[in-house]
Hints:
alpha/beta; 5_nucleotidase/apyrase; 5'-nucleotidase C-terminal domain-containing protein; six-stranded mixed sheet; nucleotide binding; 26% strand; Purple Acid Phosphatase, chain A, domain 2; signal; metal ion binding; 5'-nucleotidase,  domain 2
Amino acid sequence: MDDQGTTVGRRTLLGGAAAASALTAAGFAGAPTFAAKPNRRTLTVLGTTDLHGNVYNWDYYRDAPYDDADGNDVGLAKIATLVEALRHKRGAKRTLLLDNGDTIQGTPLAYYYARIKPITDGAKHPMATAMNLMRFDASVVGNHEFNYGIPTLRAYEQQIRFPLLGANVHNWDDGRPALTPYVIRRVDLGFHRPVKIGILGLTTPGSAIWDKANVEGKLEFTGIVEQARLWVPVVRRAGADVVIVLSHSGMDLSSSYGDALPYPENTSERLAKVVPGIDMVLCGHTHVDIPERIVKNKRTDNKVLLTQPMRWGMRLAVADLEIERKGNRFEVVRRNARTLNANTVKADKRITKRLRKPHQKVIAYVNSVIGTAAEAMSAATSRYEDSAAMDFINLVQAQAVKAALAGTPDEALPVLSIAAPFNREAAIPAGDVSVRDVAGLYIFDNTLMAIKLTGAQVKDYLEKSVEYFKPVDGTGPFPPDDVTNAPTDAAPDGTPDYNYDIMGGLDAALTYDIDLGKEVGSRITGLAYDGQPLDDAGEYVIAINNYRQSGGGGFPHMADAPVVYNAQVEIRQLIIDWVTEQGEIDPASFFTTDWRLTYNGEPIQIQR
């Protein structure tokens, strides 16, 4: 069915020359790499992951085509061109198109249809429209599918014309599957009967923590490996000749939520090694491009193919499974995968034409002027020096919490706030300020909460935060990258900017030095509130986002900290509302330098 409800079937949109041109541009010959044999056929599996609301190759925060240092393009419209070219070359009946989750959150386009013109009120989600046009065969829920609450997820599920899987997502009350665990697709490869492809969906269980406010008491999440052990045999007994797992989980063992759950966050390779009966795993969640990894299952010695196509529609995974007929059964005997770059092709005109109106509506929304700024603010240096941009976020958060505490037993407590430098390119211009200017400061859909910590716990929290910095020898000057994004056991490739929290006070300043000449765990010096040493036993209210409060990043004391505010209001919207109501942002009224980097007490110089 097409988007208007008329039957279209699996037609090929690209002619032969156009398909060949698209694949040649992508550096892909198009034909299977396996030698032809009478009793063997090739199934081609195409995969996307972590699309995060990207349809067009467009950066709504910059109001310009997407661009990055590596020349990547984004969006389903470009992926659709590659998909149709491969369907033309390989045969549409011999291909499957699968998605690995984190689909309906991540861009202003996705936000607009969740909050401004919500799909729960009857609007059509642009991602559902695009994916229906592309004729996806199945998808799995990612952790970000729960960001807007279960009603939004269910509305999206009703709009798509392919199953939304999640075998390890259960109803809270009865423990039954809350989503379809698996689906079997019958693919005609030219054998005596169709080959039955079992597709099992599993998602990282951290949603129980990250979206606690949305899912607690409604949904529970269990381990990927544990549920695969239960469901893979079920899929095989249901007749599957080949089993593909959609695993919204990275390949290598790691976790961003420490010991808060007994299940690893990223466990796809372990899944392939320890659960027998799997032929292929489409991985995701970690936003990296891993074209091919082949591992052996420890119990069967069978090889399992893993592939992960980056994020945002930058890449399309292309996996070939050579299937051999052995009597009345089929077996995968050879396998390979690669990823194709979306920047090699033009956007599919069907997709861009159908989504043009929603796209233009969102552009108009994000460019609407809501206030002015007395002077420009940039987040470019926020990761290594105090900035007005971070102070502004902390101001808005702290004021919202302070107002909510009025009339409660905690109204007299000092209010502190944390903010992280999410977006190095964020900038508020002098003069007119638009929605997109403000939204660029806070690119995630986190909601505001408030907790209580003691002074000693505040110091512990800050010590964890400043693990972000690398040790140095001297006062520099140093290039920023020589100081920031330190690798840790939890983040071996470097601590991301969003795990560096900057803390500030509302009615009085919270001040501290970060001494990189000292050992990790002892770097916070001179910690003071209103000019006096922070009281270790005193109580402080901390304005914090829901991701951090629920354990994201593994910060200390989160599990036991009393929650004193949780209205489930998005921080980005609070900032937009603040500018709309106040009319002007004046950094001179709130910005002070409250923290600095030092080496044995002396200021560290950072190269500009």
